[in-house]
Structures are given as structure tokens and as C-alpha cells.
Amino acid sequence: MNIEPSILSAGVGNILGEFPEEVDGITMTSVLFCKHGGLITPVTSGQEVTDNLILGVSDDLINLLKKYETGMDKSGNYLLEGSPALYPYHSPSDDPNVLTIGWGHAMFSSQEGEFVFSDGTSMNLYDMCIYDSSGTQPINGITYDQAMEILQSDIKMREEILNEELEKRQIITLIDQHFYDALFSLIYQMGTEQITTNTDLSKFLNKTNFDPTNAQEIKEQFGEYTNHSEQGTMRRRADELDIIFYGTYERDYDETRYGDIWAKKTHPNQVTDGY
User: Fold this and answer.
1) Number of domains in the chain
2) Which of the four pLDDT bands, split at 50, 70 and 90, describes residue 73?
3) Are 44 and 31 within 8 A, CB to CB?
4) Are residues 153 and 30 in contact, defined by beta-carbon separation less than 8 angstroms?
5) Residue 82 domain-assigned (yes or no)
6) For the chain, give me the number of helices (H) and strands (E)?
7) Do 103 and 71 form a contact (C-beta atoms < 8 A)?
8) pTM of this prediction?
9) Which of 46, 64, 88, 111 is the most exposed place for a label (fewest CB within 10 A)?
10) Phi first, then psi: what are they for 114, rounded to 5°?
11) Apex CA 58: angle with CA 26 and CA 63, to 5°?
């Protein structure tokens, strides 16, 4: 198996104590070890499919997630696309108590801010937002490498939840990498409760009607999640549909390319503004 160097490479073999040296191309995300004839073979997240079983998100999806989860700097300015927020910030669209750091790592309270890094360093990412004498500039921050580790942890947690739900429905071997990635992107933004509770998306998965040939229903299912017709969210849904139908992982800033697919399950006769 030819493994390309991964953007999330962090010497996983060394960190996990399974290999004496770092192994290029192996991510921290959902690292699995499969025993074959006494050998322990590393399997990378999103880079290996065994008997149609998707093991995790692809690196292409992670790259796209990082673009969508670009945050703000300590002065409240949006960062260069794909850059992590190294300081906790409050997004204007979030509740007043919510702080975000890294790539979309949202925290609702000090209790949710606790994080232990692989080197044993413990931080409260929520409480670290201490302001300077002017009362406007947070002076505590994390490093880029720490932001990567937080992202890896967030991805792994959601992968485990998604895999559990797909296994519970006995459909995990029916879903290809593209659908897995698109579904993961949706729940990364909208919350894992969309598949763990009795939602329309959960019912949709139960019907196992997610084959790409079932195009219109897939479009309308993803089109239900718009954050009240927020343009950026609608564009993200359209990009997820591109992953499913075309296998492309690029940001496209035209949310209209699939037509008016928005909220048609809840409001079938309502025309979205601009269509």
C-alpha cells in the first residue's frame, strides 16, 4: 500500500509506542491496528477500505473541513482560509457563552474546556481567554501543533459516533468513502445528535436509500440543514453533495448549482429567496 504523506502526520507510530520511528502518512485520526500473521499493520484514517468498510474520513475531507472551520484572530478578524484560531474567540453567530478555538472546536463552558495533549500538558482552553490591560486582547493562546491535536481528537470522537450508528443500522459496509465524508462534514457542523436521535436524517439512514442514484432525495436531505438559509451553510451543503456525486473536495461559492433543494422536506411548497 502506497501511503502519501498526510497533513496530519504526527509520528503516530512513535506516539502510540507501536513503532520505534515515526511513520510518514499515518494520521492520529482513528488509527487502527490490524493483526495479520503476527504483524501489526497500521491502517490510516480515510486511506484504507477493507471489505467495503470505511475506517474514517479521508485527508481530502480534512483539508476541506479546515477551510470551513477557519476561525478568527485575537482581534476578531477572520484568518486566512484554512488557518486555525490559536486564541479562543466568540463568533457573532454563537450564543454569548460559546468560545471556539483551533478549527471549529466549540466550548460552552469551562468544564468543556479541559484538554490533555499527547505530551501530558493539560490546558483549559475555555479559561485561557485572559484579556490584557486594555480588556480587548486575549494574551493566552495555543500553538499550531496543539490546534492540530485538538482537531484530530474532535475528528476521532465523531468518527467513533458515526461508525457506531452505521454499524447499529448494519449499513456501514454499504456506504462508500464519498458518502461517509459528506455525512461526516454535515454532522461536524450540525452536531452528532442529528444521527443519534430521532431526526429526519436518522430516519433517512435507516431506509438505506443513500445510493447516489437516489439523487433528488439525497439533495433534499442535505438541503434540510441550512442554519435558517445562511448562505455559508448552504454552500457547505452543496460542496458535500459534490463529494457524493462527483468525488470533488473543493469549496464552490455558488449554493444555487443544485437548484432550490432547501428545506423542501419541511416546507415542500416554499420557494427559497433567489430562486
Assistant:
1) 1
2) confident
3) yes
4) no
5) yes
6) 8, 9
7) yes
8) 0.79
9) 111
10) -65, 130
11) 95
Q: How far apart are CA 275 and CA 263, in angstroms?
A: 13
C-alpha cell at 42: 497500521
User: Band of the pLDDT at 163, cuts 50, 70, 90?
Assistant: very high
DSSP E strands: which ranges in the chain?
32-36, 39-43, 49-50, 53-54, 85-89, 99-102, 105-107, 114-116, 122-124
**Could you tell me whether strands 32-36 and 39-43 are parallel, antiparallel, or unpaired per DSSP bridges?**
antiparallel
Name the grid cell of 172.
Answer: 456501514
Q: What are the tens digits of pLDDT across the range 177-202? A: 999 999 999 999 999 999 999 999 99
Contact 42, 31 (CB under 8 A): yes
pLDDT for res 47: 37
Q: How far apart are CA 255 and CA 273, in angstroms?
A: 12
Quick check: is 167 in a domain? Answer: no
- How many angstroms separate the CA atoms of 166 and 95, rounded? 31
Whole-number Å distance between alpha carbons of 202 and 205: 5
User: Which has more confidence, 275 or 30?
Assistant: 275
Dihedrals φ, ψ of 100, to 5°? -130, 145
> Which structural domain range is residue 140 located in?
71-147
Q: What cell does 157 get?
A: 470522537
pLDDT at residue 138, as a whole number: 60
The answer to whether the CB of 228 falls within 8 A of the CB of 190 is no
Q: Residue 107 pairs with which residues in a beta bridge?
A: 99
Residue 141 lies in a domain: yes
The rounded distance, in Å, linking the Cα atoms of 225 and 189 is: 10
Q: Does the residue 21 lie in any domain?
A: no
